Amino acid sequence: MTPASSDTGTYDLNGKLLVAMPSMGDARFERAVILLCAYSDKGAMGLILNKPSVDVRMSDVLDQLEIQPSESAAAMPVHFGGPVETGRGFVLHSSDYESSLHTLSVPGGFGMTATLDILEEIACDKGPDCALMMLGYAGWGPGQLENEIVKNGWLTTDANPKLVFSTPAKSKWSEAVRSLGIDPLGLSPTAGHA
């Protein structure tokens, strides 16, 4: 899928999904689905949507911050958002919530907040309708992501809240591939060029 062109003459990938091709050489991104939250000629930043942590729960994060969580907030999973700044937390959420401190609006009906107030509100069940807690993020320098796309490392597609928030993590990659009209079983780890 070809991304829409932005005013700067480059492709605008803000709010798009990156879907890792089977040939992805980096194990951290194997079968990854990433929502791009920021994209410009200075680089890109996104969050991996389908890699829940097996070791960390929201209760662990809130305990470390000395925030008493509700039962539902304590059970919320925490995801590996990417290999950059893995000790830093980000909440990807529905657009119904905006922090009084700072929320980055992400095209497609999403927001990203990395301030303590959203965790306090989630802990008492007053946060956004839909949210994913992430530790770390995926980042690319100028031209790096475009180069990876040209080398068939990633497919790009539109994001939708159902895929992002409601689809189980283990099914997100295949559902993202299907959204492009491609059978996931038909993807080859090697790509050809015309």
UniProtKB/TrEMBL annotation:
PANTHER family: UNCHARACTERIZED PROTEIN YQGE (PTHR30327), UPF0301 PROTEIN YQGE (PTHR30327:SF1)
Sequence similarity: Belongs to the UPF0301 (AlgH) family.
One Gene Ontology CC term in the entry: cytosol
Domain of life: Bacteria
InterPro entries: AlgH-like
This protein's name: UPF0301 protein KX928_22435
Organism from which the protein derives: Roseobacter insulae
Pfam families: DUF179
